[in-house]
Design a protein that fits this description.
The protein folds into six domains: 191 residues, Orthogonal Bundle (Isoleucyl-tRNA Synthetase, Domain 1), CATH 1.10.730; 184 residues, HUPs (Rossmann fold, 3-Layer(aba) Sandwich); 210 residues, no CATH class; 221 residues, Valyl/Leucyl/Isoleucyl-tRNA synthetase, editing domain (Isoleucyl-tRNA Synthetase, domain 2, Alpha-Beta Complex), CATH 3.90.740.10; 37 residues, no CATH class; 60 residues, Ubiquitin-like (UB roll) (Roll), CATH 3.10.20. Strands 8, 9, 10, 11, 12, 13 and 16 form a seven-stranded mixed beta sheet that branches. Strands 24, 25, 26, 27, 28 and 29 form a six-stranded mixed beta sheet that branches. The chain has a four-stranded parallel beta sheet with strand order 2-1-22-23, with helices on both faces. By secondary structure, the protein is of the alpha+beta class. It is built from 28 helices and 33 strands. The N and C termini lie far apart (74 Å).
Amino acid sequence: MSETNTAAEVAAPHRYTAALAADIEARWQDAWDAEGTYEAPNPSGDLAGDPAVAARPKKFIMDMFPYPSGAGLHVGHPLGYIATDVYARHHRMTGHNVLHTLGFDAFGLPAEQYAVQTGTHPRVSTEANIVNMKAQLRRLGLGHDKRRSFETIDPAYYKWTQWIFLQIFNSWYDEDAKKARPISELIEQFESGQREVPGTRAWSELSAAEREDVLGGYRLAYASDAPVNWCPGLGTVLANEEVTADGRSERGNFPVFKSKLRQWNMRITAYADRLLEDLDALDWPEAIKLQQRNWIGRSVGARVDFAVDGRPDEKITVFTTRQDTLFGATYLVVAPEHQLVTEDEAHRSVVPAAWPEGTHQDWTGGHATPAEAVAAYRKEAAAKSDVERQADAKEKTGVFTGVYAVNPANGEKLPVFTADYVLMGYGTGAIMAVPAHDSRDFAFARAFDLPMRCVVQPADDRGTDPSTWADSFDSYDAEIINSAGRGVSLDGLVVTEAKTRMAEWLTEQGIGEATVNFRLRDWLFSRQRYWGEPFPIVYDEQGVAHALPESMLPLELPEVEDYSPRTFEPDDADTRPETPLSRNEEWVNVTLDLGDGPKRYRRETNTMPNWAGSCWYELRYLDPDNDEQLVSPEIEQYWMGPREGQPHGGVDLYVGGAEHAVLHLLYARFWSKILFDLGHISSAEPFHKLYNQGMIQAYVYRDARGIAVPAAEVEEREGAYYYQGEKVSRLLGKMGKSLKNAVTPDEICSEYGADTLRLYEMAMGPLDVSRPWDTRAVVGQYRLLQRLWRNVVDEATGEVTVVDGEADEATLRALHKAIDGVGQDLANLRFNTAIAKITELNNHVTKLSEVPRSVAEAMVLLIAPLAPHIAEELWHRLGRSGSVVHADFPVADPAYLVDEAVTCVVQIKGKVKARLEVPPSISDEELEKAALADPAVVAALGGAGIRKVIVRAPKLVNIVPA
């Protein structure tokens, strides 16, 4: 401590300093906890006996689930938490019953990887991280209802995650009713004959295993053999969303390959239309809605069946959005995972033993047989991501399968290729190629010397011979040509008319129909991991899956000696997963009585993905201690039920990063709709209003080797940056431990106090915009709080200095304008401008010789949502009882919001000639008369006539001389 600081503290022992802030903040945090200040009453029990509370409007405010990292928080992490806290505090002060709390999403890969490296049980490290994170968050003064907090790793929580899985497993989607229904109702339909059983046999004739196979085609949670993203380096399969654009794992950056494995899936595709339609009623950023719409990818087109030449019982079905161009198809392409070319002998159907006579040598890839060519190509394609496979700029690759298909429109034989630009994840995994009118097909046809046929009249002068074109001609409003045969003609029709006519013809012929397709694929729900929720599923000796009864929940995660799945060489695509749970034989093989006597079963040894626990956590906040049901209907209806402006219900405000646009948000919406359909909740959507906060960035400094150096030790000299005497580069980027630029909230709280940190993060800029962190700028908000303190407290004596007199006119106007502006800003998440208005008011008050008590109290209430500790302290020093947290937010007097006079600019030929002080309510006619009478205007006109006067009362008059 310097001698100057020591002298200042002696002269002003009651000055607002970091030490005083620390004392105030700790005392009030303890008091808030002891008094349950932030506890939100529910409509049953708490609320039932208090009509005054029950009559208050409610507000449910949420942050996206934090994951308790071992690295702890840096100052970028609390941005959203502080924002929702300010918003929640403002709503408490405006008469709302506010539910605001925070739990922890604690299953997942980081803890498991740490366990593999150190041998520490994931629960031990995770719980230690939670304790540390709770302490850091508490220091910020966040007003959470701590009774409602939980961790997803608590068996009392994941009991209900498993219960929800069973509801999904025991449900099917009724396309007629457009909703999920219990699987028992589907079984009744099969038994009664109301619904035809797939195949030729009656339900009563099927074995238990056969019945389960049928039901698996309907269940909303089902196991199937399907192409998956296999990551040998992690030893697990990944959802599409967990694979990066360059075909590597989001975690660990390992190569990912396409492989066929039996895995659990969620039939999210059944809800594709509803997931799209209900977006319109949500108050979400349009960018996020667009991402979800694109991910769901609804396309209207037609299904077309192509017969396989020489195999009358075989067909290749394609989905196309351009059935109007069927006459222009000159070849077909199937994905490398398509059953036509799969290595699975049970599905392989038509790949011939030898190349057909006349096969073009460039079509074979240099292989002796179609089987060799296809096998080699499939292996090559498995190492590429979907994004890589679809990149327009890449060279088009593929091989001829040796198979020909028959175009149903004209009877032509079309060669069938397999190529990686076609994906199994879209449509049927097979396309009809119309190279004259599709750029990717055009590039492929050029590469393989395939024919092209123009069937859509070009709008330019390129002519109708595609061999002379530089690229395809794509149009949706041109005229169809060269399209007649086999009883149908599209010639002369425009595209939209031709699409309708061709769909009708396909239906008439029984070889296709108009249909809707989605890019969305079913959600892969299995992980070959230890640290996740166990599936409440067991298998009998025939391999039939059975759901555990609710009485056996939770199925707790057992102890294992080795936490790691078996991993393999990252490039070894031919490996298969081995899970940690499969090694615990005592847990895996069990004798259970599931209602028909004790039998031996084998448990599912995959675990649920880390997304499972966050698909429904908003519901647990409502009723966290309920062990009898997912959530009380009355409580759920109160907090999340539909209401005016929120037709699907949901959380009133949900704040988090835009990076969760598809994964978490789409999955949570899907689970909510199932629970809604089954009658468990009244809200068909989990989150009504979504707000994406920006990112706090920091400068990254790198030495000549490109290695990050400690940002805190970098010196700036004459516009350059140096670390230990060596020049380094500077680039704005993320904040993080690995980049050596992280600043912890603990550091800032120790130096300035938590209220200063809160104010600085909210004042940095608009909440939804990323902004750079600058520790040197924090002091500005620290000084604001010091000035506020001095306006109320004498720094020498500690006595309150306010007076009981009335404020003058100017102060009242400044005060009520601030009340009006700050209130609107806080309600609309404009925290930076709210702080600017408080600062302006505080500066005005600082100039007064005496501060009226009414003004001081109003200022404390204005800043309370943003800086709650100092506000609580000053509120009580001003003699107020009760917590400032629940005090009424000030209400502006409209009489003081109107300026006594405004300045009107008078222009002649666009140049300012006079400024008039006029009443805000002045009319256009009165303002024009006053402007023309002003001596400066009269002199400027010099007797010239006036052609036109433009008046914009009360601020502008523009005179145009004759």
